[in-house]
Write a structure and sequence with these properties.
There is one protein chain. A 4-stranded antiparallel β-sheet has the order 2-3-1-4, covered by helices on one side. The protein is α+β, with helices and mostly antiparallel strands. It has 2 domains: 76 residues, Alpha-Beta Plaits; 181 residues, no CATH class. The protein is built from 9 helices and 4 strands. About 5% of the residues have low confidence. 40% of the residues are buried. 64% of the residues lie in helices and 11% in strands. Helix 4 packs parallel to helix 9.
């Protein structure tokens, strides 16, 4: 048995973990994956095929660099199936906030909330693809990934179109208080998700390590919408909301492209 350690500089949230799991799913030489998200490191236990493993990781464009490979006598690992209950919980939280943010975003006329809801939906796609295809064929998993990726891009394009319409139109100001309150709740939800996923690793002081991941995109987006809400009120202008909405839509498209790569 060999143990290879990789540094993955852009692996800053559990979504990247699931993308990597799906990408490496078809390599039979892999016996276990051990993710250290706070330190952006991945340890792979395998029996050969290191070149294929490295090529697959590099193809995700997450800033992969192999640190080293060495022999190991370790043969017992935590099973991925033991994490399924946690992953279902995280999926449910993300999808619930997709509905909450989409609904409140439409009612409050906030593109920031609408865009953030799509980011939550993107995370739900990643977890859903991973769970739905467990035990299924790789071909099935790739088909699901392609459908999710294209659907995500379609939603983002519709969002961009609405941003342009509001930018050049004479729209009412979004409800800044709803933007702030809902984003704070979404921030708390993301914190719970990160805590649950870190807890599933069964590592000591996992809740402390989870706090290190608060630099992830989801949390930055939540903070961005909160700041945009404050600026909407301060400047009496809807432009900050449109700007944060545009930024988040771009991040959503980038996430969709990553998902589509899994379908190749």
């Amino acid at each position: 048995m060999e143990k290879s350690v990789f540094e993955i500089s852009k692996m800053d949230c559990p979504s990247e973990e699931n993308l990597i799991r799906m990408k490496l799913d078809g390599i039979s030489a892999i016996k276990n994956l051990d993710f250290d998200i706070p330190n952006r490191k991945l340890t792979i236990f395998h029996t050969g095929e290191i070149d294929k493993i490295e090529e697959s990781l590099v193809a995700l464009n997450l800033g992969t660099r192999k640190i080293g490979t060495k022999q190991t006598s370790q043969t017992e690992f935590e099973e991925y199936n033991s994490q399924k209950k946690i992953l279902w919980s995280v999926l449910a939280i993300n999808f619930a906030f997709f509905i909450i943010e989409m609904t409140t975003g439409i009612i409050s006329r906030s593109m920031g909330l609408v865009a953030d809801s799509l980011d939550m939906l993107a995370d739900s796609f990643v977890y859903g693809i991973s769970l739905f295809a467990v035990g299924g064929s790789i071909v099935r998993k790739k088909k699901i990934a392609r459908l999710a990726g294209y659907f995500q891009i379609l939603l983002a394009v519709i969002g961009f179109t609405e941003v342009l319409r509001r930018f050049f139109g004479n729209e009412k100001l979004p409800d800044f208080s709803t933007m702030i309150i809902v984003s704070i709740l979404a921030l708390i939800a993301n914190g719970i998700c990160l805590y649950l996923l870190q807890k599933s690793k069964s590592k000591k002081e996992a809740h402390m390590k989870a706090s290190m991941i608060f630099t992830s995109n989801d949390v930055i987006i939540n903070l961005g919408v909160i700041i945009a809400g404050l600026l909407v009120n301060w400047l009496n202008s809807g432009k900050p909301d449109l700007i944060i909405g545009t930024i988040v839509f771009i991040l959503v498209v980038q996430g969709a492209v990553r998902i589509l790569k899994l379908g190749k």
